[in-house]
Structures are given as C-alpha cells and as structure tokens.
Amino acid sequence: MLDEVRRYRRAEGWRGLAEFADLLALDNQTHDVDALRRNADAVAGLFTARGAAMAVLHLRDDVAPLVTGRLGTDPTRPTIGVYVHYDGQPAGRAGWHTPPFEPTLKAADGGTIPLPGAGEEIDDDWRLYARGAADDKAPLAALLIAVDALRSAGIEPRVNLVFCFEGEEESGSPHLREYLERHRDRLTADAWLLCDGPVHHSGAPQVVLGVRGYCGIELTVYGPAHELHSGHYGNWAPNPALTLAHLLASCKDDAGRVTIDGFYDTTREPSDAERTALAGLPPVEEQLLGQLGIAAAEVPGSRLVDRLMWPSFNVKGIRAADVGAGARNVVPATATASIDIRLAAGNDAGHMVELVGAHLRKQGHHVVDREPTPAERREHPRIVRLDAELGYPAMRTPVSEPIVAHLAGVAGTAAGRPAIVMPTLGGSVPLHHVAEILGAPTVALPIANNDNNQHAPNENLRLGNLWYGVDLFATLLTTEMESDR
Amino acid sequence: MLDEVRRYRRAEGWRGLAEFADLLALDNQTHDVDALRRNADAVAGLFTARGAAMAVLHLRDDVAPLVTGRLGTDPTRPTIGVYVHYDGQPAGRAGWHTPPFEPTLKAADGGTIPLPGAGEEIDDDWRLYARGAADDKAPLAALLIAVDALRSAGIEPRVNLVFCFEGEEESGSPHLREYLERHRDRLTADAWLLCDGPVHHSGAPQVVLGVRGYCGIELTVYGPAHELHSGHYGNWAPNPALTLAHLLASCKDDAGRVTIDGFYDTTREPSDAERTALAGLPPVEEQLLGQLGIAAAEVPGSRLVDRLMWPSFNVKGIRAADVGAGARNVVPATATASIDIRLAAGNDAGHMVELVGAHLRKQGHHVVDREPTPAERREHPRIVRLDAELGYPAMRTPVSEPIVAHLAGVAGTAAGRPAIVMPTLGGSVPLHHVAEILGAPTVALPIANNDNNQHAPNENLRLGNLWYGVDLFATLLTTEMESDR
To answer: Where's the Peptidase M20 dimerisation domain (chains A, B) (predicted)?
Structure first.
C-alpha cells in the first residue's frame, strides 16, 4: 500500500502542494473572525470535494466556526477522530523574510524556487514558508493528499474518520467546550488524534499521550507611591524590586526545586508503563545544550522528559522601572513578575494558586487580588497583588490504551523507523475537553519538523515532513484495528 | 538691614520677578549647547548690569560655557564663592500643565495669574512654573534681587563674591574639573556655596555639608541563547530571571542590610560633631511615610539621615522578557538589573565595584565585563556581565569648619527660625572637584521649596522661597565674617 501511495505522491504530489499553498494564502490570524470564516469554508470545501460530509458550525457572530465532518460511515469499522486547528498565531510582517500569507517555497540553501509542476522532482529538504504551514494546516494537507492517493490506487479505507477542525486554538480555545457539548453527537469516535506540534528532537516519529496543564500568575509588589530619587531616599525607602527578588528566590531554590509547600504533593507519580516509556526515550539533552548554547540544565544532568512529568514554576518576565539606556536613578514604585505554572497530571490550577498565596503570606506579605488601597499600603509593610489565570488541567492518556500501541505501529510503519511513545509534551493544549466531553482517549500525532518556527516569524514545513504525514494518514486509514468500544 | 531689604522687595520685587521670568523663558535643556550659550550670555549680562566683572569661558564648541565673575574686590574682606548651574533637565511637553519655557505664575488654588506689576501685592504662596525655576536658576534671581535691594538701600556689602555658574550639571558635569583646573585663578575663595536642592522636609532652612558619591552597576545574567517556549522547556532550561532574583537577594537581606563582604568597611564613621548635628535634626519620618504612602521604611523605624551616612545598594530597575499584557509564555534569554550605589565618605567607587564582583564570584558566577562568547556560555552554567560606571566619591565638609556656623547663623537670621546643619544629602553632586581643586570648604545652601518637582514636569518655585533666598544673600553679604585663610 505505502509503495502505491508514495508512487502517487511522487507523480501527483505537486497538485496537493499547490492546493496546500492556496489554503496557506488565506490569512488565518486567530483574532480575525471574518478571515477565519473564509478558512473554515475553504477547508470544508476541500474535504467535501473528497466526498466527506462536512458542516461549518456557528456559535455566534464573533466566534470562529467549528468545522466538523465524516469520511466513511461503515458501522462495522472503527472510527478515528482527527482534531486540527485551522487558525494561526498573529503574523505581523516584522521578522518575516517573505510575507506570511504569500506561501514561498525555498530550497535547502535558502533560495526561493517556484512551486513544482507536473513531472518535476521534489526535494524532501525543500520547505514551504507561511503562517500555518506547520501549525496547524499541515495535517489538513497531508490528510487530503493521503485520501487522494488511496483513491487513485483504488485502496479502500478500513477506518472511518470524524473531523473536528477548530478556529480558536491560538486564542486559547475559549469556545471549544461549548462546541463539543452542543455537537457531541457529530463527534463520536473510538479515539481522537490531535495533529499538532513537531516530531521528536531526534527526528523520530512520536506518539504523544499528554500535555501539561496551565495556570498563569502575576505578582506585583509595592514600594513608595511614586518613583523616588534614589539618592535622596535610597537606603531608607523600601525597594519593591529587591522585595520581589526575595519573594521569587523564596519560591524556587538555586537547585531548581520549587520550595512552595505542597507544590509537588498532588502530582500523580508516573505509572509503571509510563516509566518504561520514559526509560526507552532517546537522550536529547546534549543536543539541546548545544542548540540552546548553555552549559547545563536548571537541574544539571536532569532529563527533559523527567522534568516534564512535574509541574513547573517559570518566571516568564520581570519588570521594575527600567534598565540600560532607559534606567533612571530611582527607587521603583512597583515591581512585577509574570509566572506560568505548567501543571502535571493530578494538579488542580485553583489549588496551585492557593499554595502560592499561602507561600506569599508565609513570607510576611499581605496578599490582595486587586490594586491595594492607600490605607492598605499605609498599614502593611509588605503587600503583594496576585492575579491568577486559572487555565486548565494536564491530560495524560494511559500507555495501556490499545490505541497507543496501534498508533505507534502506524507511525513507525509510515516513517520506516520505530516511533517514540512520549508520556507528555511540556506544552499545554486544552485536550481535557475532548477526553471529558467526548469520552475517548486522545493522542497527539505530530508531523512537523522540529525547527518549524511555530508561533514565530518564518514558520515553515519541511516537505519530507508533509510526505511523512501523507504516509501516516494512509497507513492509519488502511491498517486493521481492533475497535475496543 | 533685613527690614530695608524686605521693604525693597515688597515694593520692587515685581521687577526681579519679571527679570527672572525672562531668564526662565530661555530653553536651557542640558544637552543643547547653542541654547546654553544663550543662557550663559544672558546670565553674564544680568550680573554685568550690577557691576560685576563677568567672563563667559569656552572650552570647546560642543561644551557649554562656564560663566565666572567677581563682585567686590576689597582684599581686606573675605571672599565667598557661589556655585549655581544654569542648565536644566530635559523637558518634553509630556506631563507639563503649561509649557516648560513659558514661565507661568499660579495662585495657591492652582489658578493662573499674570505677573504682578508695580504696586501690586505678591503672595508668598504663589508659585512660578518653568523648567529651571527651582533647579537651579532660583539662586541667580535671588542673588540679583539681593544686590539690587542692598544697593537701593545704600548698604555696602562686607564680603566679596566670586561666581562659578556651570552649564553641564544636569549632564553629570563632564567638564567641570577641566574648567576648574584651567581657571582656578579666577576662582579663589574662602569657601564655596553650592546653591541647589530644597530646604529641609520640615521647611526649616538648612546648611548641608556634603553629598553621597555615586557608582552605577548593571548586571546581566544569561539563560538559553534565545527565548524558549516555557511549556516545552520550562523546568529544564535555566531561567535567568530566577537566577537574577537569587543574585539580588544574595546582595541585600530582607532586613535591608547589604550582605556583600566588606560593603560597609571603608565608610568613615560620623565624627562627634556630625553625631551631634544628626541628633539635633528634627524627625521627618512620620511625615515621609505619609507622603510616600508606605507603612514602614526599608529598615523599619530607621531615621532617613542615619541611613544617608552609609552607602546604599539600590535596585533602580529590572527587566526580563515582559509582564502584563506583553507577557509571553517563555523562558527569558537574559535578565538585567540596574543598580546604583550611593557612596558614603571613605568609600571608593572602584573598590566597591570590586567587592560586588567578588560577591558574584562567591555566588558561583563567572563574571565578565562584556557580552559572553558562545564558548563561555557553553562552559559556565552561571555567567554574569557586570558593567560599571565609576562615578565619583562622596564629599563631607567637617562640621567644625568656621564657615559652617557662620552660614547657619546667616540662614537662621534670614529665615527667622533656626537653621538645620545637615551632615549630608542623600543625592550625589560632583562637589569633590571644588574641594580638591579650589581647596576651599564647600557647603550647600538650598532655597527651593521641597515640593518643587525638581527633574520632573511642572517644576516650580514658591515665591516665599525666592524671598527667603533674597534675604539669605542679603544677610550673607552684610554679615561680618572672620576670614580663616
């Protein structure tokens, strides 16, 4: 089967590539609902043309549509759900070498080349540059070409597909839950595939069973009511920048361990199967240290995957007055730190925020959730404002779910090298909605290259990765699978 | 004598005020050499019109002139030097209620009123708004009116005056030393008065004997070569914002004590006379806590003046990535803190920077004075870049200098209430050049109101303070003084 699919894509892949480029030419920046409607209609049109039964669902005028669909309705066959998001991160022109919505093909040496036509050879190392090329229109293109290839070879799929294409993922999926609850009847499947993210650092295909959850915290501490001349008052007026430094230093020690009471207590220990999966992962740390230009990890010698099994406490930004050319000789009036906590399985966002609040109080701070009043500032020598964004929990599908081994086999067959089973990604996606509402195991099956510049300028997809996606979906569609429901 | 001076200024003060307003209408922003030349010429012209022998001295085309002069040449009389700077801080329109170079008179209720004419009464609580109104053209106006008043009353001065009017103070006085060395013959005096800064918080007149010195330090610590996705790498990649927090927290404890080895060792203990002066100062702390809207000082219960006798370690700004609406879910690539150390008597800037460097090494950091190379970043898990601006030392004229008691008497007589002898201001001025090169004791004799918005928008001078300045200079000029040189 794969031979026939590969023959097809070598001869006719240019067609799929042209269609992909047309889809990428549609501005899909996540906050532009009008643009997103055009994308939704285009995506639905492409799948309708392959015989899928598609629906463009609307919640309200100011909400991007959810595109659902179904390809194959044989009740004796298992059904796989495919989740893809068609919206993209904002893309101003700054930093882009070519306009983000003028898809541009480049050779490995960086030279721009025209899209290939009939009979022209295509190099795996060419890359297509555009917002959404990798994140997350790539799986749509791969799926369309896979369906075309099977049809051209006269090969009948052995599984039904159900589609859920979202237009608000890059905005934090604010309406996904509502859409799923309202339309769960259209979205019945034995398992859901999340097609997003890159393949493993080693280049190996991977099946990812979970993501970390998320909660955001902003801490602001207060000094004098306005900035003061640091000569006249420095050494006497309290300095909020230094107070904040002490506070942050109290949250996580120099050895990388979070010292907030109870921070690690609710985390579910890895299961035996997860431990086995973790132990089998190839090391990436030396490669990463080189890529990132650093001498050691936060906890020297630690493995990335082991650290991802635990909640993180990351200071994503600090501000107090200014530094460098903008520095003024002042005692700052306030100091602020933005923090993100990535939640591991078992952690509850609200509970984690409570632990942080308790820690701040233990450090002698009066904790408020809004600007303190002048009276409060006169009363309490130490005040910290805590703003929390509760986010969502982590999700981990057990290694033991039958779909996991099945998908690892499919990915390995498609890639021609064994797939990696990764218990969790470090990032956060609101996967738990799918698991909770649709009641099916969820697994991520990434296809993009690691260096795809996801969320950044010059996002790109290496064509070899697009072809891997084609092979992956073709294999998935044609491999017999035990329905366990 | 004071009665006659006061009679004069009540009747004719409007003339001096009009002349003052004309001087303030000249843009004097510190980096505009052309504008500063116009100011220098105008100032020289005003004193020449009173019979002073003035000189506008030029060093180079791109350097603001130094204005020197002499009023009175009787070799049997003592000679007092008066230092004033005629340049002002930059003054964009932002934040100003009236244009900074359109001097505007306002009543105590905030209403704009025209400049008074002949015979009109003038309220002490009116304020004149303009850049430079307080800092530092006010003493020029007060001096001119005092000279006019004495002349009008036929009172002969008993001291000679020598003038040193600088045009680069707000730029850090980069050429003052060169000017003084080159022209020291013109600048011989028994003592120098620095006329700058505000009267005491309590409103009492004050004689200030010193200032703290200055040195600036900027620390930058390094994480990954570029910002990383905090989900994929948070908990594994080292976070420079947290490293910086630990580093700053290690420099100064939660109780306000600098924990850098040797930081306090070189500070000269207050002399007995300084202790007595300090003990006699009125408390201002409760008033300050109220004004600044804070519950306690950095060291709760400490007196401002006591803290100013010691070097400060002030974090004037911190930056790592961004916070608030600009926050991104990243591990920052670098984190930077700007620090100013105010030096006390006895401290050497270079030595203090060495102590900071030694402290950073003690914390396990590799210290560099430029951007670390990629090879250094791969080798050292902790690197801190230390950029130092060495600044200048503190200056304290001994309380026992005869001029101190003399000036305290003069100020007390002029104000009608006892003057405060303040061993040091918290701020920094390069006073040591005057003491070193001209070899005479230096004392600051401020006249401006405390809430003059020095360096900020809406700088202003309360007219009552201008009149205090007039009385002060008239008293100084007519009080017998023992020449001790």
So the answer is: 210-365
Q: What is the mean pLDDT of residues A124-131?
A: 97
Q: Same CATH topology for A2-211+395-478 and A213-267+310-392?
A: no
**B225 CB within 8 Å of a chain A CB:** yes
Any idea which of A327-336, A387-396, A475-484 has the lowest mean pLDDT? A475-484
Of B237, B319, B374, which has the smallest distance from its Cβ to A297's Cβ? B237
A208 CB neighbours in chain B (<8 A) are none
SS3 call for B56? strand
- pLDDT > 70? residue B483: no
The residues spanned by each domain of chain A are 2-211+395-478, 213-267+310-392
Contact criterion met (CB < 8 Å) for B323 and A236: no
Angle B407-B411-B415 (CA atoms, 0-180°, nearest 5)?
A: 170
Q: Which two tokens stand for residue B216?
A: 């600036």
CATH architecture of B2-211+395-478: 3-Layer(aba) Sandwich (3.40)
Residues of chain A contacting B229 with CB distance shorter than 8 Å: 426-427, 455
What's the rounded Cα separation, in Å, for the pair A87 and A131?
9
What residues of chain B, 304 to 343, have a C-beta less than 8 Å from chain A?
304, 307-308, 310-324, 326-332, 335-338, 340, 342
Percent of chain B with pLDDT over 90: 86
| Nearest in space to A105 (alpha carbons), one of A464, A460, A470, A451 | A460
ipTM: 0.87
Query: At A147, which helix (H) or strand (E)?
Result: helix A138-153
The fold of the B213-267+310-392 domain, in CATH, is Alpha-Beta Plaits (3.30.70)
Q: With cut-offs at 50, 70 and 90, classify the pLDDT of residue B482.
A: low
* Residue B120 bridge partners (DSSP): none
Q: Which site among A292, A330, A336, A385 would you substitute to test the B interface, given the most B Cβ atoms closer than 10 Å to its Cβ?
A: A292
Residues on chain A touching B453 (C-beta within 8 angstroms): none
pLDDT of residue A482: 67
Average pLDDT, chain B: 94
Question: Any residues with CB less than 8 A from the CB of A254 and at least 6 apart, and which?
Answer: B246
Residue B110 distance to chain A (closest CA, Å): 22
pLDDT of residue B362: 98
Cα dihedral B29, B30, B33, B34, rounded to 10, equals: 10
Identify the closest residue of chain B to A223 by CA–CA distance.
Answer: B294
